[in-house]
């Protein structure tokens, strides 16, 4: 099999009785079952041998059976919606009753959850089939300050399909790498700060981090109740929007997000460019982003330069980190108590497990953030309340909302990240900059879409908005994506080169 091939975009937003619109260069599958067979063959090809991107940590043993049953439903005239029969990979920190949910830790490997997370239940109700679980940065990258994105004791190291020596980002590493490599048409990730947008940017796929609370977090291994948000990852904005509709309740919120991924919505949009804080850290990111801004303007959007978030200029990281760690200790303990079997029931017990299994769990980096979380005051403390209040103030009313209102903007646009850094299991990762902190602290949406390759690696832009602005961001991002495809073509498929 030619490993450079990947599925062409599925035509997500239309009724289908089988996944025919999900195409591969080797042929159009006539059924969900045939398509799953093709994906399983491909997963086997890129999960072994010299390629070994290691994006999938668990395959569903009944994937073909699920597909066959959904094909029968469709043949009997009982299609459940536009994504009936479409496979999806689920990040391995999201509960699935029929597969392990480990958060990448061996501590949870032998005690599967008893029920699906609500977001997984919604996908199954919409006729989607869970192909398996995607690897992730262990504990969603909140275990240690020197962690390596894409590594977990349970799933190993996920690699970037564009260059196997480069990071797949994190913490939704496997979700992003699997979509890029054509192992699945759709995946679900989670984000606390950058965990969807980073792997989307590094792997050249689309990622939507929704407004916190839009997609339920019950049954998701938590980091921060203030910032956690599950969301879709896909090859195109339209596909990601179709999955977002399902994740938010299959239409229960009254928004068909894929219906906003249509031509002609860019004209009249006002898009701000916050250069002072979120540009300038990488010429490889800035150049493509400048071309993206020019393309937005050519398509009829009004570009407002200098829409800067002055409130974020000197804010730093400590308040956000304190909030996350305080919420982690409480939230993770509450979650672990829902898991039956011989598993840790608190963060203290997770720390003890890691020490007892240091040869596997701590072989590459420690657990300094877990240990710090155990020393902090609780969620009822004044220190926590004041830190959270500062995070909200600088990111919302004095930040994103202030800039949007001052310039009458629909959205902001920035480079997402520099190209993927080299994998390093010894030294801390080096990322020169990113755009995710304001929307993370605010709990606001962030939509990341690829622009082009820089030095052989994907780079992207991210569109920011206020709470509940997903539909508008989808209109903008889809308009950009379509204009990009007309002028320079879609992002080239990954080549699985060993070294860049």
Describe what you observe in this structure.
The protein is of the alpha/beta class and 500 residues long. The chain has two domains: 32-314 and 393-487, Amidase signature (AS) enzymes, CATH 3.90.1300; 318-392, no CATH class. Helices cover 34% and strands 14% of the residues. It is built from 15 helices and 15 strands. It has helices at residues 32-46, 63-75, 118-125, 173-180, 197-203, 237-247, 275-278, 283-298, 318-336, 347-356, 358-361, 368-373, 382-406, 437-442, 470-487; strands at residues 56-59, 87-91, 129-134, 151-152, 156-157, 159-160, 163-167, 186-191, 206-209, 229-234, 270-273, 302-305, 411-415, 446-454, 457-464. The strands form three sheets. Strands 1-3-2-8-10-9-14-15-13-11-12 form an eleven-stranded mixed sheet, with helices on both faces. It has a two-stranded antiparallel ribbon with strand order 4-5. A two-stranded antiparallel ribbon has the order 6-7. Helix 1 runs antiparallel to helix 2 (63-75) and helix 4 runs parallel beside helix 5. The two termini are 23 Å apart.
Tags for this model:
single chain; 500 residues; alpha/beta; Amidase signature (AS) enzymes; eleven-stranded mixed sheet; two-stranded antiparallel ribbon; 14% strand; globular; disordered N terminus
């Amino acid at each position: 099999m030619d490993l450079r091939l990947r599925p062409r975009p599925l035509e997500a937003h239309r009724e289908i009785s089988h996944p025919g619109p999900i195409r591969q260069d080797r042929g159009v599958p006539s059924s969900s079952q045939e398509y799953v067979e093709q994906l399983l063959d491909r997963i086997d090809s890129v999960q072994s041998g010299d390629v070994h991107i290691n994006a999938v940590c668990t395959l569903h043993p009944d994937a073909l059976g699920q597909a066959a049953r959904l094909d029968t439903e469709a043949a009997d005239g009982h299609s459940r919606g536009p994504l009936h029969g479409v496979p999806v990979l689920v990040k391995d920190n999201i509960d699935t009753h029929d597969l392990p949910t480990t958060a990448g830790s061996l501590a949870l490997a032998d005690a599967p959850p008893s029920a699906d997370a609500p977001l997984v239940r919604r996908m199954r109700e919409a006729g989607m089939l869970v192909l398996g679980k995607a690897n992730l940065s262990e504990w969603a990258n909140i275990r240690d300050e020197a962690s390596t994105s894409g590594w977990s004791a349970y799933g190993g190291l996920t690699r970037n399909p564009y260059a196997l020596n480069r990071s797949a980002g994190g913490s939704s590493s496997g979700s992003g790498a699997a979509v890029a490599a054509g192992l699945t048409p759709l995946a679900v990730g989670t984000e606390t700060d950058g965990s969807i947008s980073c792997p989307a940017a590094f792997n050249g796929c689309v990622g939507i981090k929704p407004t916190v609370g839009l997609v339920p977090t019950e049954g998701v291994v938590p980091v921060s109740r203030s910032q956690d948000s599950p969301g879709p990852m896909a090859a195109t904005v339209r596909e990601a929007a179709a999955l977002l509709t399902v994740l938010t309740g299959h239409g229960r919120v009254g928004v068909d997000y894929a219906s906003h991924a249509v031509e002609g919505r860019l004209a009249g949009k006002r898009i701000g460019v916050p250069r002072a804080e979120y540009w300038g850290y990488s010429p490889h990111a800035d150049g493509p982003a400048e071309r993206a801004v020019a393309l937005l303007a050519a398509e009829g959007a009004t570009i407002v330069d200098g829409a800067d978030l002055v409130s974020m200029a000197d804010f730093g990281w400590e308040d956000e980190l304190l909030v996350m760690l305080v919420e982690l200790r409480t939230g993770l303990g509450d979650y672990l108590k829902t898991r039956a079997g011989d598993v840790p029931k608190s963060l203290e017990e997770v720390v003890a497990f890691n020490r007892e299994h240091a040869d596997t769990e701590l072989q590459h980096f420690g657990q300094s953030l877990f240990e710090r979380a155990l020393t902090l005051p609780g969620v009822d403390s004044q220190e926590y309340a004041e830190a959270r209040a500062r995070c909200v103030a600088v990111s919302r009313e004095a930040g994103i909302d202030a800039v949007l209102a001052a310039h009458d903007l629909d959205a902001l646009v920035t480079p997402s990240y520099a190209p993927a850094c080299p994998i390093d299991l010894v030294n801390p990762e080096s990322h020169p900059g990113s755009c995710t902190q304001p929307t993370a602290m605010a709990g606001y949406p962030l939509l990341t879409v690829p622009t082009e390759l820089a030095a052989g690696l994907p780079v992207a832009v991210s569109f920011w908005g206020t709470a509940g602005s997903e539909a508008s961001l989808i209109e903008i991002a889809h308009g950009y994506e379509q204009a990009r495809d007309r002028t320079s073509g879609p992002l080239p498929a990954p080549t699985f080169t060993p070294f860049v």
